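re the bet — no i am not wrong, look at it urself. input seq straight from the record:
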Amino acid sequence: MGKDDGKLRFGFIGTGSRCHEYINNVLAIPGNKIVAICDIQSGPIQRTLEHISKFNVSAPKVYTGSERAFEQMLNNEEFDCVIIASPWEWHVLMSVAAMKAGVPYVGVEVSAANILEECWDLVNVSEATGSQLNILENVCYRRDCMAVLNMVRQGLFGELIHATCGYLHDLRDVKFNDGVNYSYQKGGELRMGPTAYAEAQWRTQHSIRRNGDLYPTHGVGPVANCLDINRGNRFLSLTAMATQSRGLHKFIVDNGGENHPYAKIQFNLGDVVTSMIKCANG
């Protein structure tokens, strides 16, 4: 708790659209205080300051100017919780920095890590510092998922011995936009990378470089709760199988034509990825 006024003190690293949803939740609880925000882009910072002003609370300090400005924020301020909603490749670095800075509770968007070694980095630093790291898997907290979990814990389904889950989300109009709107508007200019808006600035690059189930927690998170994973049971392995990549190329051709520069890109991420998880008792 805050030393002087008893308020919970929050910091935000990454001030895009996801950040605004967290701000709504944080400021819905009287007494919470947003101490500081951090981003490398002035546009998202300004929109976030305008969003916070709607709640009639004090404006937070702003940290910007470099990709490592978040370290300055963590070293200069005191927080009860820091929420990280930045591009994926920064999640581990920022989470580790927040825990090592003594932040008691750190929330990080999915995917929290990109490779297995990074997962162990998060576990090891959390155990060494005592900071609690929460992967902000929002699907686990949907009303329908929590209702099913409640029924499981009341024994309405008996003993669970097998479960299937999945996550279906067509993201083509998020991985490309016109540089102004979050999602692509029919007939607009196709953009990705630095000139695009929001996630299309960075997320599309993962579809070019990587293939696999890039964030399986949307599907498996609620089922993992039902199976008591890390509460008596544990995962042994995760295997992902992907189709050929066709959808992103087709989206470009359909909206930009066969001669569009993006039509030459070789996408790696399969259109449909199916995962199989093996778990065990104890």
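see?? The chain is about 35% helix and 15% strand. told u. also The mean pLDDT is 94. so pay up
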